[in-house]
Input
Amino acid sequence: MAEVNKQQKRHPDNKSRGRRDDKKPVDDGLTKIMVDLRLVQKVIKGGRTPSYSALCVVGDKKGRVGIGTGKARETTNAMEKGFNAAKKNMITIIMNGTTIPHEITTKYGASTIALKPAKPGTGVIAGGAARPVLELAGIKDITAKNHGSNNKINTVRATFNALKALSSAEQIAERRGKTVEEL
Output
């Protein structure tokens, strides 16, 4: 009789609640890449206080991508904050097969990026920090050129803004009040 009372007091699933060993990482189908990790030091009366800044990109390689930055006193915490910020900041991009529908040029800070659609089989021709954003977005054929500053944070944000600004022929026709054939 005493054992029955014990079981009734436990959780209905008869599992331990809130223990660390029961928490398993959730596989959400997202690929994560840390593009940049910077050491930042704040000079105070007692000396220097180190802190880390992480620039992270998250994507499912099926048309969804997000970017985020995280700052913390330890690298792992900065990375975790960056990936969480990237997950919250995800967008769905418009694609035309394995490439983008049209050319686009955007600027962020001193970085300017030009994205051009490419024929199937070309691959991702992009350098620096633009490549991880394009690959995690699921774009297989594209040509990208970075002009101006090659600062990683500005390049990633310029690429992200370019992907966000893409629009399909149907959307453009709808905005102009025409049909797709009239364009």
Remarks:
- The chain has a mean pLDDT of 87.
